[in-house]
Amino acid sequence: MATAITTTSPKSPRLLSVVAMLWRTLRRDLTDPYRPELHYMRGPGPKWRAKHGASEPGEARAFADRTAIAA
Fold this sequence. Notes:
Elements lengths: L11 H19 L15 H7 L4 H14 L1
């Protein structure tokens, strides 16, 4: 009866640690709670509108467009 000899190659622990590191990185990146797009301003705020005399967001955009064209 032939017996199967199982040997582990010296690269197996290294491969396992690389796979484990990739798994941890992937899991961390997919479940990262920080979403910077939720914190960015999306245009001039109420203080800017009060300072420049614009009352509606559309007016603020038109004012910004006029100043960009004049410059």
